[in-house]
Design goal:
- There is one protein chain.
- The chain is mostly helical and 227 residues long.
- The chain is built from eleven helices and three strands.
- Strands 1-2-3 form a three-stranded antiparallel β-sheet.
- The longest helix has 22 residues.
- It is globular.
- The model has no long low-confidence stretch (mean pLDDT 90).
């Protein structure tokens, strides 16, 4: 797995592995990986959608959307990062490293997205050059695990319920940093429909995505109790 992405441009690889905490402590280190992370996120959404569309001609849009969310969620991308050895290569500031940043699902998933974005640029913006490596990683995920995670995609399920029973309104998440450190923050989230509080995360999480998912799951449990 570790040799799936072979870079021609070492500067792109280094940038993909450079966390902002490292740049803060080493001002001459160049750019951090946040812009590459943005690019990689968009590419992974496309490639995972394309992969699932071809693999599952029997599935409709809703189920494909749930499985895509499961295939590229934070935990799974962090697992891909570890499979590639990024946890041993990511450049972190001393504070982030002391706080266990190279074991953080949030930081590792971001590093993996950055690697994908950087490799896309390294391949002269040819997305097809990425497909074999990325799909090798997708194929390594057991189908049963994707199914379980798809079933747990609470945010999509809550949105579907709201639009079916309340109307064309989207759940609104209020997510705040409530603890942790600057390098590895902790978040809590509440979800509203209109002005009404429907659910909240019952503990703190290392990423906004996980906190919002927990709030959505709490909302679904509250709804089930009311029915």
């Amino acid at each position: 797995m570790k040799n799936l992405f072979t870079f021609k441009n070492d500067n792109l690889l280094r940038m993909a592995l450079t966390h902002r905490s490292y740049v803060h402590e080493h001002p001459t280190a160049g750019s951090d990986n946040e812009r590459l992370e943005f690019l990689g996120d968009a590419i992974l959404n496309f490639l995972s959608g394309s992969y699932l569309y071809r693999q599952h001609p029997e599935l409709g849009e809703d189920e494909l959307t749930r499985r895509r969310a499961a295939l590229v969620d934070e935990k799974q991308l962090a697992n891909f990062a570890i499979a590639l050895g990024l946890d041993q290569q990511i450049l972190l500031g001393k504070g982030a490293l002391r706080d266990g940043g190279n074991k953080s699902d949030n930081l590792l998933s971001c590093a993996f997205e950055a690697i994908v974005g950087a490799y896309y640029l390294d391949c002269h913006c040819d997305v097809e050059a990425l497909r074999p490596a990325v799909e090798t990683l997708f194929e390594s995920v057991p189908a049963e695990l994707v199914n379980i995670r798809a079933d747990l995609d609470a945010k999509n399920r809550l949105q579907e319920w709201v639009q079916s029973y309340i109307g064309h309104i989207l759940p609104r998440y209020v997510t705040e940093k409530v603890g942790g450190t600057d390098h590895i923050p902790e978040f809590a989230s509440k979800v509203y429909v209109g002005d009404r509080l429907y659910g909240q995360s019952l503990r703190n999480f290392s990423s906004k995505k996980e906190a919002e998912r927990a709030a959505a799951l709490d909302a679904l449990e509250q709804i089930e109790r009311m029915l």
